[in-house]
Amino acid sequence: MTVTDFRARPNTSEYMAAYPPDYDFFDLVPGHDHPGTDTLEAFVSALDDVGVDRAVFTGRQTVEDGRVVRGVTNDYVADCVDRYPDRLVGFAGVDCETDVVAATRELERAVRDLDLSGVSFDPTSPDARTNYPLYAKAAELDVPVVLTLGPNVGTVGDSHDAARVDRVATDFPDLTFVCSHAAWPRPTEFVALAYRRPNVYIDGSIYQFFPGAEPFVAAAEDLIREKVLYASAFPFDSLDAIERFRALPLSDAATEAIVSENASRLLDD
Predict the structure, then answer these.
(1) Domains in the chain: ranges and CATH
(2) Cα–Cα distance for residue pair 138/74, rounded to 1 Å
(3) Which of 130, 133, 107, 137 is closest to 120 using CA atoms?
(4) Peptide bond preceding 215: is omega within 30 degrees of 0, i.e. cis?
(5) CA atoms of 258 and 185, how far apart (whole Å)
(6) pTM of the entire structure?
(7) How far apart (Å, rounded) are the C-alpha atoms in residues 52 and 49?
(8) Which H, E and C letters describe 207-258, residue by residue?
(9) From which residue to which does the signal peptide run (predicted)?
(10) Strand 61-64 vs strand 67-71: parallel, antiparallel, or unpaired?
(11) Interval 128-157: pLDDT, tens
(12) Residue 2 has what DSSP assignment?
Protein backbone atom coordinates (compact mmCIF):
# COMPACT_ATOMS: atom_id res chain seq x y z
CA MET A 1 0.00 0.00 0.00
CA THR A 2 1.43 3.37 -1.08
CA VAL A 3 0.41 6.11 1.35
CA THR A 4 0.07 9.47 -0.40
CA ASP A 5 -0.20 12.94 1.09
CA PHE A 6 -1.87 14.79 -1.78
CA ARG A 7 -0.87 18.29 -0.64
CA ALA A 8 2.51 18.62 1.06
CA ARG A 9 5.16 21.12 0.06
CA PRO A 10 8.76 20.84 1.33
CA ASN A 11 9.73 23.49 3.85
CA THR A 12 12.93 24.30 2.01
CA SER A 13 14.28 27.83 1.98
CA GLU A 14 13.17 28.16 -1.65
CA TYR A 15 9.56 27.40 -0.78
CA MET A 16 9.34 29.05 2.63
CA ALA A 17 10.79 32.33 1.32
CA ALA A 18 7.26 33.14 0.18
CA TYR A 19 5.72 32.44 3.60
CA PRO A 20 7.34 34.35 6.48
CA PRO A 21 6.55 33.40 10.10
CA ASP A 22 3.85 36.09 10.37
CA TYR A 23 1.98 34.82 7.28
CA ASP A 24 -1.69 34.54 8.25
CA PHE A 25 -2.21 30.90 7.27
CA PHE A 26 0.11 29.65 10.00
CA ASP A 27 -2.63 30.60 12.47
CA LEU A 28 -5.17 28.18 10.94
CA VAL A 29 -4.33 25.16 13.07
CA PRO A 30 -4.17 25.62 16.85
CA GLY A 31 -0.77 24.65 18.17
CA HIS A 32 0.90 24.58 14.75
CA ASP A 33 3.59 27.15 14.13
CA HIS A 34 5.80 28.07 11.22
CA PRO A 35 7.95 24.96 10.77
CA GLY A 36 11.10 26.85 9.85
CA THR A 37 13.24 25.87 6.91
CA ASP A 38 15.10 22.65 6.26
CA THR A 39 16.59 20.67 3.42
CA LEU A 40 14.68 18.64 0.89
CA GLU A 41 16.39 15.56 2.31
CA ALA A 42 15.02 16.38 5.77
CA PHE A 43 11.51 16.78 4.33
CA VAL A 44 11.68 13.32 2.76
CA SER A 45 12.99 11.92 6.05
CA ALA A 46 10.04 13.54 7.83
CA LEU A 47 7.69 11.75 5.43
CA ASP A 48 9.32 8.51 6.51
CA ASP A 49 8.81 9.40 10.16
CA VAL A 50 5.03 9.69 9.74
CA GLY A 51 4.64 6.73 7.39
CA VAL A 52 3.96 8.64 4.16
CA ASP A 53 5.43 7.10 1.02
CA ARG A 54 5.05 10.08 -1.28
CA ALA A 55 3.84 13.65 -1.35
CA VAL A 56 2.18 15.64 -4.09
CA PHE A 57 4.13 18.90 -4.33
CA THR A 58 1.50 21.34 -5.58
CA GLY A 59 3.24 24.39 -6.95
CA ARG A 60 1.86 27.85 -6.42
CA GLN A 61 2.42 31.07 -8.28
CA THR A 62 1.08 34.51 -7.54
CA VAL A 63 2.37 36.94 -10.14
CA GLU A 64 2.63 40.71 -9.90
CA ASP A 65 4.28 42.93 -12.51
CA GLY A 66 5.41 39.89 -14.43
CA ARG A 67 7.27 38.14 -11.61
CA VAL A 68 6.40 35.49 -9.05
CA VAL A 69 5.90 37.13 -5.64
CA ARG A 70 4.51 34.13 -3.79
CA GLY A 71 5.32 30.49 -4.38
CA VAL A 72 8.08 28.84 -6.38
CA THR A 73 8.91 28.30 -10.00
CA ASN A 74 7.84 25.12 -11.72
CA ASP A 75 11.47 24.46 -12.54
CA TYR A 76 12.10 24.19 -8.80
CA VAL A 77 9.19 21.79 -8.35
CA ALA A 78 10.55 19.67 -11.20
CA ASP A 79 14.06 19.74 -9.72
CA CYS A 80 12.72 18.41 -6.40
CA VAL A 81 10.86 15.63 -8.21
CA ASP A 82 13.99 14.76 -10.21
CA ARG A 83 15.90 14.33 -6.95
CA TYR A 84 13.23 12.11 -5.38
CA PRO A 85 11.14 10.66 -8.22
CA ASP A 86 9.76 7.85 -6.06
CA ARG A 87 8.78 10.14 -3.20
CA LEU A 88 7.46 13.31 -4.85
CA VAL A 89 4.82 13.99 -7.50
CA GLY A 90 5.02 17.47 -8.97
CA PHE A 91 2.05 19.61 -9.97
CA ALA A 92 2.69 22.89 -11.76
CA GLY A 93 1.56 26.11 -10.16
CA VAL A 94 0.19 28.72 -12.55
CA ASP A 95 -1.29 32.17 -12.09
CA CYS A 96 -4.81 32.08 -13.47
CA GLU A 97 -5.72 35.68 -12.59
CA THR A 98 -3.13 37.87 -14.32
CA ASP A 99 -2.50 36.45 -17.79
CA VAL A 100 -4.32 33.29 -18.81
CA VAL A 101 -2.42 33.05 -22.09
CA ALA A 102 0.91 33.02 -20.26
CA ALA A 103 -0.49 30.60 -17.68
CA THR A 104 -1.66 28.22 -20.39
CA ARG A 105 1.73 28.29 -22.07
CA GLU A 106 3.42 27.68 -18.72
CA LEU A 107 1.13 24.72 -18.04
CA GLU A 108 2.10 23.16 -21.37
CA ARG A 109 5.80 23.76 -20.70
CA ALA A 110 5.55 22.32 -17.20
CA VAL A 111 3.90 19.12 -18.41
CA ARG A 112 5.69 18.57 -21.73
CA ASP A 113 9.18 19.86 -20.87
CA LEU A 114 9.38 19.46 -17.08
CA ASP A 115 7.31 16.27 -16.93
CA LEU A 116 5.07 17.50 -14.11
CA SER A 117 1.95 15.47 -13.45
CA GLY A 118 -0.81 18.04 -13.01
CA VAL A 119 -1.61 21.68 -12.36
CA SER A 120 -2.72 23.65 -9.32
CA PHE A 121 -4.11 27.16 -9.12
CA ASP A 122 -6.15 29.47 -6.91
CA PRO A 123 -9.22 30.69 -8.80
CA THR A 124 -11.26 33.57 -7.47
CA SER A 125 -14.18 32.08 -9.40
CA PRO A 126 -13.64 28.51 -10.65
CA ASP A 127 -16.18 28.91 -13.45
CA ALA A 128 -14.87 32.23 -14.78
CA ARG A 129 -14.68 31.95 -18.54
CA THR A 130 -11.16 33.34 -18.45
CA ASN A 131 -10.06 30.08 -16.79
CA TYR A 132 -11.43 27.91 -19.59
CA PRO A 133 -8.28 27.97 -21.76
CA LEU A 134 -6.40 26.51 -18.78
CA TYR A 135 -8.98 23.76 -18.34
CA ALA A 136 -8.93 23.01 -22.05
CA LYS A 137 -5.14 22.75 -22.06
CA ALA A 138 -5.17 20.47 -18.99
CA ALA A 139 -7.75 18.27 -20.72
CA GLU A 140 -5.60 18.17 -23.86
CA LEU A 141 -2.55 17.20 -21.78
CA ASP A 142 -4.65 14.69 -19.80
CA VAL A 143 -3.51 15.95 -16.37
CA PRO A 144 -5.65 16.62 -13.27
CA VAL A 145 -6.42 20.10 -11.96
CA VAL A 146 -6.18 20.98 -8.26
CA LEU A 147 -8.41 23.92 -7.33
CA THR A 148 -7.25 25.59 -4.13
CA LEU A 149 -10.44 26.73 -2.42
CA GLY A 150 -10.41 28.81 0.73
CA PRO A 151 -12.96 28.76 3.56
CA ASN A 152 -14.71 31.90 2.38
CA VAL A 153 -18.12 32.64 3.83
CA GLY A 154 -20.89 35.16 3.39
CA THR A 155 -20.59 35.70 -0.36
CA VAL A 156 -22.74 33.75 -2.77
CA GLY A 157 -20.64 32.67 -5.70
CA ASP A 158 -17.26 32.91 -4.00
CA SER A 159 -14.38 30.50 -4.61
CA HIS A 160 -15.75 27.99 -2.12
CA ASP A 161 -19.06 27.67 -3.92
CA ALA A 162 -19.49 24.06 -5.05
CA ALA A 163 -21.97 25.14 -7.72
CA ARG A 164 -19.19 26.97 -9.56
CA VAL A 165 -17.03 23.86 -9.62
CA ASP A 166 -20.04 21.82 -10.71
CA ARG A 167 -20.43 24.00 -13.81
CA VAL A 168 -16.80 23.51 -14.77
CA ALA A 169 -16.90 19.76 -14.10
CA THR A 170 -19.95 19.56 -16.35
CA ASP A 171 -18.31 21.55 -19.12
CA PHE A 172 -15.14 19.42 -18.93
CA PRO A 173 -16.40 15.91 -18.15
CA ASP A 174 -13.12 14.25 -19.17
CA LEU A 175 -10.98 16.47 -16.93
CA THR A 176 -10.28 15.40 -13.34
CA PHE A 177 -10.68 18.07 -10.66
CA VAL A 178 -9.44 17.94 -7.07
CA CYS A 179 -11.14 20.42 -4.75
CA SER A 180 -8.62 21.17 -2.02
CA HIS A 181 -9.72 22.31 1.47
CA ALA A 182 -13.27 21.24 0.63
CA ALA A 183 -14.33 19.80 4.02
CA TRP A 184 -15.46 23.08 5.60
CA PRO A 185 -17.44 25.34 5.95
CA ARG A 186 -19.86 23.85 3.38
CA PRO A 187 -19.03 20.16 3.55
CA THR A 188 -22.41 18.82 2.42
CA GLU A 189 -22.28 20.78 -0.82
CA PHE A 190 -18.88 19.37 -1.75
CA VAL A 191 -19.93 15.88 -0.70
CA ALA A 192 -22.87 16.22 -3.07
CA LEU A 193 -20.57 17.50 -5.81
CA ALA A 194 -18.15 14.58 -5.48
CA TYR A 195 -21.06 12.15 -5.29
CA ARG A 196 -22.69 13.60 -8.40
CA ARG A 197 -19.67 14.18 -10.66
CA PRO A 198 -17.41 11.23 -11.48
CA ASN A 199 -14.56 13.60 -12.39
CA VAL A 200 -14.47 15.45 -9.04
CA TYR A 201 -12.35 14.45 -6.02
CA ILE A 202 -12.11 16.35 -2.75
CA ASP A 203 -9.53 16.67 -0.01
CA GLY A 204 -10.20 18.16 3.38
CA SER A 205 -6.66 19.33 4.13
CA ILE A 206 -6.56 21.27 7.41
CA TYR A 207 -10.34 21.64 7.64
CA GLN A 208 -11.21 17.94 7.91
CA PHE A 209 -10.61 18.26 11.67
CA PHE A 210 -12.70 21.40 12.20
CA PRO A 211 -16.05 21.38 14.06
CA GLY A 212 -18.68 21.24 11.34
CA ALA A 213 -16.70 18.92 9.06
CA GLU A 214 -18.52 15.87 10.43
CA PRO A 215 -20.67 15.40 7.28
CA PHE A 216 -17.48 15.18 5.22
CA VAL A 217 -16.09 12.47 7.51
CA ALA A 218 -19.38 10.56 7.55
CA ALA A 219 -19.64 10.63 3.76
CA ALA A 220 -16.01 9.56 3.41
CA GLU A 221 -16.90 6.29 5.11
CA ASP A 222 -19.06 5.01 2.28
CA LEU A 223 -20.98 7.55 0.15
CA ILE A 224 -17.90 9.11 -1.48
CA ARG A 225 -15.19 6.75 -0.21
CA GLU A 226 -13.63 6.50 -3.67
CA LYS A 227 -13.61 10.28 -4.20
CA VAL A 228 -11.70 11.50 -1.12
CA LEU A 229 -7.93 12.11 -0.98
CA TYR A 230 -5.83 12.47 2.15
CA ALA A 231 -3.83 15.72 2.34
CA SER A 232 -2.06 17.45 5.21
CA ALA A 233 -1.47 20.88 3.59
CA PHE A 234 2.02 20.98 5.10
CA PRO A 235 3.65 23.41 5.92
CA PHE A 236 0.38 25.01 7.09
CA ASP A 237 -0.42 21.94 9.17
CA SER A 238 2.03 19.32 10.38
CA LEU A 239 2.94 16.20 8.42
CA ASP A 240 1.77 14.08 11.34
CA ALA A 241 -1.77 15.23 10.59
CA ILE A 242 -2.05 11.76 9.09
CA GLU A 243 -2.09 10.39 12.64
CA ARG A 244 -5.07 12.61 13.47
CA PHE A 245 -6.69 11.51 10.23
CA ARG A 246 -6.29 7.84 11.12
CA ALA A 247 -7.99 8.60 14.44
CA LEU A 248 -11.17 9.85 12.73
CA PRO A 249 -14.21 7.54 12.96
CA LEU A 250 -13.50 5.71 9.70
CA SER A 251 -13.24 1.99 9.00
CA ASP A 252 -9.92 0.48 7.98
CA ALA A 253 -11.29 -0.01 4.46
CA ALA A 254 -12.27 3.64 4.11
CA THR A 255 -8.98 4.86 5.54
CA GLU A 256 -6.99 2.68 3.14
CA ALA A 257 -8.98 3.99 0.18
CA ILE A 258 -8.44 7.60 1.21
CA VAL A 259 -4.75 7.49 2.11
CA SER A 260 -3.69 5.13 -0.67
CA GLU A 261 -6.01 3.66 -3.26
CA ASN A 262 -7.74 6.80 -4.54
CA ALA A 263 -4.53 8.73 -5.14
CA SER A 264 -2.97 5.74 -6.89
CA ARG A 265 -5.96 5.51 -9.21
CA LEU A 266 -6.01 9.25 -9.91
CA LEU A 267 -2.27 9.31 -10.63
CA ASP A 268 -2.53 6.19 -12.84
CA ASP A 269 -0.12 4.11 -10.79
Answers:
(1) 4-266 (3.20.20.140)
(2) 16
(3) 107
(4) no
(5) 20
(6) 0.95
(7) 8
(8) HHHCCCCHHHHHHHHCCCHHHEECCCCECCCCCCHHHHHHCCCCCHHHHHHH
(9) none
(10) antiparallel
(11) 999 999 999 999 999 999 999 877 655 555
(12) -
